[in-house]
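Question (not urgent): is this output format expected?
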Amino acid sequence: MKDSFKENLRAELDYQGITVKELSAKTGIAKGTLDGYLGVRASMPPADIAAKISGALGVSVEYLISGKEAVKQDKLLDQNVRSIVQILGELSKKDIETILELSKILKNKSEE
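Got this back:
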């Protein structure tokens, strides 16, 4: 990730495939206001706005500001899930179905 709110927000929107208009609808923040955080003269939003944005994106405010986040066990899991999803996006439908079946087998095994 980059080191500015603008760059981190843009990268997260792109990663999640969310438009500014969709983020506006999720947060109740005017699209023009969000555009202001992403524009050439981007500014840092107030804490309450940054919290709304981060909540809608499922990331922390710290992550949007610095591009870094303290790695906790649950965060590590989240990072692994993101990596898996990214890899799945590059596989064929047949490979994804195979992985799904394997996942079901592993789940059942862990429940024994």
